Amino acid sequence: MFTLWRAAPSGAHLTVSAGVRLLSTHFTASRIPGRVGEDPSCTPRCVLKGGVRPRGLSGLILSLIVDAVVS
């Protein structure tokens, strides 16, 4: 276990989370002939998400969440 916050009060800790979603999208139906099976023009390929939240501190509710989209 890493000690990242040495001055933390007893029972307090940081919760760190991260996630990656790899996306693959295709048209499954279209009114335009020939579009089925093609990729939409503005489709993200990857979504990255990370967050940090302190826990165990009385009176403090704070989260930092960062999203990044890769096309």
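That was protein one. Protein two is written in the same sequence-then-structure order:
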Amino acid sequence: MKPIKVNADYEITLFENKSPPKVINHSLEFLALYLENRPLVTDKFYSKNFIEHVTQISGSVPSFSNEVEFENWWGSLKNIPLEKKLNSKLFSSRFTPGLQVISDISHLNIQEGQIYLAKNPFGMSGQNFVKFQKGEEYELLPQLKKSKSLLIEPFLDRKKDFSHYVFPDGTYIGYENIVDDRFQYKGSIFTNLNDPSFKSLSFYHEVSKSEWDRFENEFQSIREAMKSEGAIEGYSVDSFTYFEDGKLKIRTCSEINYRKTMGLVTWLLSKKYANDNQSSMLILSHSLKSSGEFSTIKSLQGCLHLSPGDTRFEIYFIAASDSEKLKEKFHELKILLPDGQFSVEI
């Protein structure tokens, strides 16, 4: 079996061509131990307690490798020009009218009183963005000097984030994403594992049918465009709802990630560990910064502590019979853990 490397530093490697901090891969690579039987290429030490913990959950003893020949698990890095193009926010911006791409602040076309976001077109989600308005253009200079160009978009009254992961065969799944106030990823939720579509999202009925119809047409156009560009790997289309003119609207394409995503990992964990439960969640918390914490949640049925206890954040998987029971289990988990471990609510 060919070893795998969980290259969670994919975007940095792809766009910046430099050696990223090892902590990025260490923060996520252990997830593959619950899903794969192939050896994991890593330089991180995993304790005996953690290896036993994974073995008890997965039924397989994890194996590790230091081989130089391996398969990238997060992003393929096989067709660099194509992957750069499809992962760039410059590409995904094609599907959202009204966005600006600038290489100099003199090119800005912005309105008084409107707040804007400036994003690095080649950056990771939730990172390297600046919130500004007219008169504050100078705040863009450091980021513009670094990234050479910026994507400018109106700052919207964002409400709910969701994604669709499109598999290589064209089938897709929909799920809700949990983000913090800086749009950084904190978890994913499947309300109905038997029907993982946008119609099963918890907020589906809060949005008008005409808005969902528009979303469906635009989402189909994105899939057709990805296929025509030569996409052969899986990818996610990230979307969100926002409040404007007294009603909820949908931004169909916030960005496209031509690689694995945490939402996909949640789905794969659900297929393997949710059993007969209908709802599931992956949730991130602040790091416990200690090992041997796995017994903390053993009393909470349907909840798995996946992380080794010494990484940047903890990751938990929860499954329940329905979405209300899922919320109850999340709140039970909060009680079992130290105060303030979660930076988001569901």
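Residues 2 and 264 are 22 Å apart (CA to CA). Keep this in mind for the problem set.
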